[in-house]
Amino acid sequence: MNTLAQDESYSRAVGRNSAAACCCFFTDPGLYLSDFKAVISSRDSLRLWSDSDWPEDDFSAEINGRELQFHVDDNEAHEAYGYMLFGPTRTQCYGSLYVNPAGSLLEYYVLEHGSAASLDRLDARIDYWLSEDCMDLQQQLSALIYEWINREWPLCAGITGRGAARQALYESIEMTHSHTLCSRETGGALYLYE
Question: 58: pLDDT confidence band, cut at 50, 70 and 90?
Answer without folding.
Answer: very high
